[in-house]
Amino acid sequence: MKNSIFSILVVLGMLTSCSSQKNLVDSAPFEIGTAYCQDWYGGKEQSGAGVELKIPVANLDGYRVNSIYFREQQSYVKIKDEDGQKFVVATMVAKKAMPPKDMVVHADPKKEVGNKPVTKQLQKDFPFELAYDEAVLSYYRGDVINYVKITGIKHKQAIIYPSRSKE
Length: 167
What we know:
The chain is mainly β. The protein has one domain. It is built from one helix and eleven strands, in the order αβββββββββββ. It has one helix at about 1-20; strands at about 25, 30, 35-40, 50-60, 65-70, 75, 80, 85-95, 135-140, 145-150, 155-160. Strands 2, 3, 4, 7, 8 and 11 form a six-stranded mixed sheet that branches. This is Lipoprotein.
């Protein structure tokens, strides 16, 4: 009796672990060109900064692209048409390191003892291990989601937007 319960639990565990794994394929059923990314910086501090990732694609009929996983971030994507070429485009805003609300800032350094340094908190449950020039694109074929790894992403020169004059 104990053996049958144990074997049922093992089978159930295997079934649930298989369904939670990402279906990562080596090549997409549609054409993917050479992807590139480009950092951007707003002209004002509140404008922010980030990175835009562009992936040239073709023959997307019957497929819906969903999101991209790139440099420890996930972003939903859009399809843009530029000069007759379709691109999958994702814009990821850089996350700022914010001081905790209970941080003590005082003229007397002794009163600041106990403050923890400000750090960026990375997404802890990032589903893929990727190199700096790799991304994973998720796409649907019907109701089934698939993932394809994109390698060799080129890094273009950053765009620095000018700030407006105060006149």
